[in-house]
Amino acid sequence: MITVAELKAAITERITAYNEQDLPFVKRTTETRDLLASQNHILATDIASPFDVPRQNLSAMDGYGIAKGSSLEQGASIDIVGESQAGIPFSGTLQPGQGVRIFTGAVVPSDCDTVVMQENTNFADIKDSIDKSQTYPIELTKTAKIDSNIRKQGEEIELGEVVLAKGKRITPADISLLANLGLAQVEMYKPLTVGILATGDELVDVGEPLQTLAQIYNSNTPTLKSMFAHLPVVIQDYGIIPDHLEMTKKAVRSAMQECDVVISTAGVSVGDYDFLTTVIEELGQINHYKVAMKPGKPFVFGELTEGLEVPVLYFGLPGNPLSSVVGSLQFIIPALWRLSGINVEDIPVPVTLTATLANDIRKSPGRADFQRGIVSQNAEGEYVVSTAGKQDSHRIKQLSLANCLIVLPKDSGSLVAGDKVKVQPFPWR
Q: Which end of the chain is more exposed for a tag (fewer CB within 10 A), N or C?
């Protein structure tokens, strides 16, 4: 049985080959998206700046722009002949010994080589007597330096400079950058189409009445949809598939024709009515089955190939909700990011903390264990974690109460209060 680390490595290796050989990014479909619709999607081209930033020399201070050739010594007198405001630049010419009143973000006249902050002039003493319609003198109260307090044209970004590279995941900060550059649309990779199938005769769609005590609601599909909401994917919901071989085969065939990735929940164990592994082997292949983890042991990673030019990757999750969540966090979400065209260094990395156990934990060596926990900080700022109730994988309330997974290595045994453990805070908390 493969370990968690080995399965992660195997999935990464297969996706790397897929991205390089099966469907290279140069062959991927792209689409133009409005700027606000680009968040969390992946750039398909480099973005170059259409102009210098700043576009002109700008003042970094409120004060006075001083003409070239002027004395900048303490006590020097400068005749102020005009004003430069943000959006309303000074339009005249300046001679040595002259300057303009200037404000933060305003264009520095081409005749100026220095901005003196108003605190380094006698502005405070004369401000009540200034008539800005007339030339008036100001005195420097501190020696100034040439080029002071000027944001030079192009000092941050030069015309034609690549500001965002192909493969970049667009974040709110990137949207701010692009908006500053006036770019209303961007070229993105078309989102992956991800098909979700829920299997089981006992399942009922949320919102429909339960007819018998044997029935339960299909919680996995809504859970997966919510977990994938921030990913550059389009979800195709194939509903609930009965425990019937031919109907399962028909649903998988339909999904593999329409999707880039297929994810199923339940039907991957060894029961008499678990047909998915049989169907996957008939329509493709199983690369890995079962992983040494709790919960989520009967996890399937494979691919669907029958009649396809490009394989469709397949992930089979166990049926219980906790296993679906843990399997998605550990394997599927990182895989979907890698398939999206994202630069490796831009893939969101799960946060991992070291915390002190507040209670004992029973565990047997042999499988990695992901227990639901509640992590917090004590008065000293140290992380402390306690288990969120009983840890049976069928329990649903504990997942809602928890804010993290306590990650216990495969070979570890029981732990006691005071031991150090690794925790993964849930990305939604």
A: C
